[in-house]
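Check this:
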Amino acid sequence: MTAAPAPDAVDPTDRSAYRHWTTEKIRFNDLDALGHLNNCAFAVFCESARVEVLSQARGQKLGGGGDIDWVIVNLNIDFRAQGHYPGTCEVGSRVVRIGTKSVTLGNGLFVGDTCIATATATVVLSDLKAGKALPLPDDIRAFMESLMSPDNATTTEAGA
């Protein structure tokens, strides 16, 4: 079980809070019956950004694989505004919290200057065969620290 993220001193709707960026194309099939960006598309956009960050942290190509990989244990999305087709959505990523075996990532989804959603996801580095969480290696911890906003850099902690 992972610990809850520490209170976040950073405004997640502020573009300057994010250290890594991913651009996603808004597709026609990402829309709901009312022509708004569907909630599933928000989750997929967050997933794309999360996979990019976690793949870079492990020094592997996108797609992962192997006996050791990241497992998502929690995802929260706050929907803040509507998104529409056509267009692009820029997804900012940052690290909110670093634990002993887990990392909580924050995302901001932006269409132009409008933050349409914010999200957090907690992931655990795991030995998939043994079904056990693993401590974060020093190189992964250092990479994750580089993605922390200065205002929440003190949320690196021992624990999950």
